[in-house]
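In the lab's daily routine, each protein ends up as an entry in a very long ledger. A line of letters takes care of the sequence, but it says nothing directly about the fold. The fold becomes a row of whole numbers, each drawn from a learned catalogue of backbone shapes. The protein below has been through that process, and both of its lines are reproduced in full:
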Amino acid sequence: MRGVFGRKAGTVADFPYSEALRNSDIVWDEPSLKRWLEDPQKMAPHNDMEFHVAAESERDAIVAYLKSLGAS
């Protein structure tokens, strides 16, 4: 999870990303991570993510944690 901020989605070598995520133009920042956690299918239709985080406070906490780990 370290280095998520500032990284283009779907670009970590050897990770089996969906084609939808690999071909997206998403760069992970605070707004994009919050949108992703709320509804990943809306951001990148046909991706492999099957869950979402319904509570805004939980999305905020997850994004704050990822941000604390630093940028790529």
Observations:
- The chain has one domain: 1-72.
- The first helix runs from residue 19 to 22.
